[in-house]
Amino acid sequence: MMNRKLAFVGGGSMAQSMIGGLLANDYDPELIRVSDPDARQREALSRDFPVMITEDNLACIDSVDVITTAVKPQNMKQVLISLHQYLKPSSQLLISIAAGIRTKDMMRWVDCDIPLIRVMPNTPALIGYGASVLFANQNVRLSQKNMAQNIMQAVGEIAWVENEDLLDAVTGISGSGPAYFFRFIEIMINAAQKNGLDPELSKNLVLQTALGAAQLAKNSNLSAGELREQVTSKRGTTEAALNFMENSRIEAVLEDAISAAIARSKELASELGEK
Q1: How many domains does the chain have?
Q2: E strand map for the chain
Q3: What region, left, alpha or beta, does residue 205 occupy, with left being phi > 0 and alpha being psi -120 to 50 degrees?
Q4: For residue 174, how far is the Cα from the chain centroid?
Q5: pLDDT tens for each residue of the chain, 275 residues long
Q6: How far from each other are the two terminal CA atoms of the chain, in whole angstroms?
Q7: What is the distance, to the nearest Å, from the Cα of residue 147 to the centroid of all Cα atoms in its chain?
Q8: Is 119 in contact with 134 (CB distance < 8 Å)?
């Protein structure tokens, strides 16, 4: 991917995490451009990254190899329509990290057969621990898939799907997933404090336990269920907690919550695509 010119239309937190990851992996900053309409955002970008910063989207995308649209979903149509006459389908790859916008709608807005890849990232990309899933339309060449893969691997792990509809499930699991874990962490910290532990100790214990459990599950050959069984003694404290969770239908609650997120992702795709 060396010597590829990259443009980011939109300089928000996800674009910043991607730029930071690329620079941390020794990508040449002179090959990266960012455009953003907000003056304060541009100032922050200029302060943090030695890359070209502009408020002009057209100047940003001129003669680049990869264009990443890092704008809010509700702004995607307006941005793509404003760019469509200046895109070069024969030589440019378009990457969208906006949730819920289908490729068929983006292709309609750009009004050309540009190679297009949808990416569903998540917020841990901000610290290099993202989980991103990618879908490529039929115009994408293998070399362009490799470019997109290298960009997203700079901020975490990646996977590909061949069915775009699966991105709704990805949204419900990994896209929204960090918030589920944050909520669980929040509940555990509050419970620790209610049971007499001071705030700092409560936070440290819960965060280290969450981090340790995730690392153990990631690096172990055992399944999550098997790891759970290893720390669950008969008639012990862990069993008491888990039994209470099961009696409270925790599995059904979580499955229904994820289903609600997936359903909303599908609704948003239809709502935003029809506008």
Answers
A1: 2
A2: 6-9, 32-35, 52-54, 66-69, 93-96, 116-120, 130-136, 156-160
A3: alpha
A4: 8
A5: 567 999 999 999 889 989 998 998 889 999 999 999 999 999 999 999 999 999 999 999 999 999 999 999 999 999 999 999 999 999 999 999 988 899 999 999 999 999 999 999 998 998 889 999 999 999 999 999 999 999 999 899 999 999 999 999 999 999 999 999 999 999 999 999 999 999 999 999 999 999 999 999 999 999 999 999 999 999 999 999 999 999 999 999 999 999 999 999 998 888 888 65
A6: 36
A7: 17
A8: yes
Residues 6 or more apart whose CB falls under 8 angstroms from that of 95 comprise 66, 67, 68, 69, 116, 117, 118, 119, 148, 151
> CA-to-CA distance for 205 and 167, rounded, in angstroms?
34
CA distances, 37 to each of 46, 73, 82, 123, 269 (Å): 14, 16, 14, 22, 25
Tell which of 162, 188, 203 closes a domain: 162
Give yes or no: residues 20 and 99 share one domain.
yes
Please list the helix, strand and coil fractions of the chain in percent, rounded to the nearest 5, in that order: 60, 15, 30
Same domain, 38 and 113: yes
Residue 196 has which token pair? 């007499």
Full-model pTM: 0.89
Place of tokens 């775009």: 164
Give the residue from 131, 162, 193 where a domain finishes.
162
* Residue 18 zone, left/alpha/beta (φ > 0; ψ -120 to 50; rest): alpha
